[in-house]
């Protein structure tokens, strides 16, 4: 009897959330205020990280900027300060867990308060064919895009849980939801990031830390240079051009500010995600072939190779 009542409740809830989320597509719910939040962004010297820093500043938040590249990070801080915002920079290698824990303590000591929003944005790609790629470069992708999520979350989640207030944001990729050829390192690390994020989201809900929100951001190719050269069929590219970094970050912010659990940018990319789950593998293969997305990474890897032959790559 209780089982049947639970079943009925669950089905009603399922329908409620389908309806609510459909309505939300046209009628945006109210955004939450984030002035007064302390937002830590990793990879804040890069294309998206820098724009995230600026967007959070626009909304009145204070930002803590973590990047392995101090020069790029200072430039971001300068932009934030010019906007009248507060920025604190730290040169951190997020793959080094001692470095992460040490700097987390330092932030706490320097600012005298806890980080309330964590944006795990730092990311890399090897950009070489797997069989040509030095092992260290493959490992680096896994460490930056996946392992680092554990270290930063371990450093900042305890205080969020203690206050039952916070927000964990993971910048993954649509290549964490479906894949293509010749980016094995990246896809493996981003699928891992998605798995990590979702398991954490479930954990917080199961343990009733409703105040600690999570948002998984999965963007399509963004014009930041990371995937420079990547190309799909021309006719399809008109429908699905590389994203403007500013547009991508604005869409992500919209989702974050309404505590949306998942956002794919642009919306059209929900379609291949669905197809992957619903269609036979071979059907997906022929659509990839049609759209030129099977070989989209080839020109990207060629472009990287040319770049590398000018500047010898150093592997940390
Ligand atoms: N650009 C795209 O097409 C695209 C698409 C989907 C998802 N993403 C994801 O968005 C995020 C940001 O990408 P982006 O385009 O701004 O890249 P980017 O290369 O412009 O910036 C990445 C930043 O991360 C920093 N970083 C790298 N390794 C680090 C480390 N070990 N410790 C600390 N910082 C480190 C770099 O110094 C750089 O400033 C990444 O996670 C990326 O995978 C990018
Ligand atoms: C930081 O990035 C700039 C621009 O890409 C680069 O010229 C510089 O060598 C980098 N510095 C470090 C310490 O990696």
Automatic annotation (TrEMBL):
Pfam families: adh_short. It is found in: Membrane. Signal peptide: none annotated. Gene3D superfamilies: NAD(P)-binding Rossmann-like Domain (3.40.50.720). It is a multi-pass membrane protein. Its main location: membrane. One of its GO terms (cellular component) is lipid droplet. It catalyses: all-trans-retinol + NADP(+) = all-trans-retinal + NADPH + H(+). PROSITE patterns: ADH_SHORT. The keyword Ribonucleoprotein does not apply. Catalyzes the reduction of all-trans-retinal to all-trans-retinol in the presence of NADPH. This is Short-chain dehydrogenase/reductase 3. It comes from Sander lucioperca (Pike-perch). The gene is LOC116051229.
């Amino acid at each position: 009897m209780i089982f049947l009542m639970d079943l009925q409740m669950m089905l009603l809830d399922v329908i409620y959330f389908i309806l609510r989320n459909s309505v939300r597509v046209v009628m945006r719910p109210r955004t939450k205020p984030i002035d007064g939040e302390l937002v830590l962004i990793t990879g804040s010297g890069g294309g998206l990280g820098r724009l995230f820093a600026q967007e959070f500043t626009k909304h009145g938040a204070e930002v803590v900027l973590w990047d392995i590249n101090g020069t790029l990070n200072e430039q971001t801080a300068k932009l934030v300060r010019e906007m009248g915002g507060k920025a604190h920079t730290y040169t951190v290698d997020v793959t080094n867990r001692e470095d992460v824990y040490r700097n987390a303590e330092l932030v706490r000591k320097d600012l005298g308060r806890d980080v309330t929003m964590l944006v795990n944005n730092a990311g890399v790609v090897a950009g070489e064919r797997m069989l040509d790629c030095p092992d260290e470069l493959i490992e680096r992708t896994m460490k930056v895009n996946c392992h680092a999520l554990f270290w930063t979350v371990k450093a900042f989640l305890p205080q969020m849980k203690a206050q039952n207030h916070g927000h964990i944001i993971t910048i993954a990729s649509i290549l964490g939801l479906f894949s293509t050829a010749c980016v094995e390192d990246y896809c493996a690390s981003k699928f891992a990031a998605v798995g990590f994020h979702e398991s954490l989201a479930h954990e917080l809900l199961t343990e009733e830390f409703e105040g600690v929100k999570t948002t998984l951001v999965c963007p399509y190719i963004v014009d930041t240079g990371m995937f420079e050269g990547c190309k799909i069929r021309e006719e399809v590219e008109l429908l699905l051009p590389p994203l403007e970094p500013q547009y991508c970050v604005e869409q992500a912010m919209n989702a974050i500010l309404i505590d949306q659990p998942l956002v794919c940018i642009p919306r059209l990319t929900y379609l291949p995600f669905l197809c992957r789950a619903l269609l036979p593998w071979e059907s997906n293969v022929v659509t990839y072939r049609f759209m030129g997305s099977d070989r989209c990474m080839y020109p990207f890897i060629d472009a990287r190779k040319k770049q590398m032959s000018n500047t010898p790559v150093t592997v940390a």
